[in-house]
Design goal:
mainly alpha; 24 helices
Length: about 475
Amino acid sequence: MRKRPISDAHKWEFKPRFRRHAFGWKSQPAITRIKQGVAEIKKVAKKDPALAAEGAVSFLERVSPALEHVDGSSGSIGAAVGHAIAELVPLIANAPADAKKRDSWLERLFEAHQVDEIPYIERLSDHWGELCASKEIASTWADRLVGLTRMALSPDKSFRGHFHGTSACLSALYRAERFDELIDLLRVDTIWPYKRWAVRALAAKGQKAEAIRYAESSRSPWASDLEVDSVCEEILLSSGLIDEAYRYGARANRGGTYLATFRAVSKKYPHKPAGEILADLVKTTPGDEGKWFAAAKDVGLYDDALALASRTPCDRWSRSARRRPARRRGVRARHGPGRRSCLRTPTQTQEVRSTMSRPDPIQYADRLYTAIRAANFSPISFLAFGNAVKDGVDFRRMPRMAAEPFMRVVGEMLDLEEEAAQAGEIVDAEVTLGVSAPASTGSASPIPPSPAEEMTPASATTISKPELPASSLPSRRPRDRR
């Protein structure tokens, strides 16, 4: 009886969970299963790297068909798959395998990448040179893909188009150290994800200054400044130009929070004083200086922390917190603790409230539209914000690229409301309806005259109006202050 291979004998728990269309539209169950599958493969890699690589290939084959019905508009499921690829690629690349076995893995991955209808594993092609694990295999794949890649990047519009193996071809050329051919292939006008391979090829040839200039010339609204800065920083650090690399490092090492960003930059550039790093990072976020308060406090720069906190406008709601309780109670403290003793009964007095002054609608709309334009909504961030709203994602868990422009718009709206509140406060006036008030007991203060009485000149003629009984007056229900 023939003995089965170890890869077939091992029972993977993730395989039945990642059958085609295994998940519904909710993303959280799928994210949990992805993390469990990666953890299972990494656990096996500690004992059998070859078996773990086989499991990683099977996982990457199955993950995209299983997630076809998942709503990935919020970006969370795509990020989870991206993290899984980043963790599994080194396991496949470093696994001990002969040429035949590795060719089998690459064929399976290339076919899975080709039939990837929803491009969850699209970025797998960026690691193709690493997956080849040798210059010979990488050169073989480059020869196989370079013809279609050259046609896809042709300046002739009748030939050019999309080829899913373009990034794989460029990565294989780089791994095979065919730098001149790679640079010549990218002399056409193309996008940054392709141009970065030419930047790396120039740096690998020793032309690092030319690589930096080429990267800087590739900046555009469709190129990620973070990726450009990261590539330039990497090239300068490899040359030992630490001070020059620091100019890019302040922007290239973005973390999930401002404190994480500060720690990442401080860890990469330990020779720089903390105060200098903090000052340089503050310059990169004009208008949000106060958000670096935690970073300054973390390293003991308390004076700088207080200065940063004072540079950020206070929240409108915290400024008006002292006024809200009085408004909600409906009684304004005018005459000290005994103010309730001088209040009139509903049949004798009536409270008249003036509404808060509001900005002109045209002015409000114009400033709001200006705020939306100034918020720098990129097409991706605008789409991410709309998808997060559609998915019902909690605001605190909304992607940062969508939340930050939205908060700038909210800040402009709050400023408009604050200006309106300062222009006209809520005024409470007690108008006597002509019915004589009963004598009040105690030391109640007299009711101050109304603004109209104060503004009436002494020489003006006063025309007395007949008093009406209280029962004939129309009853008005006071509006809610809130």
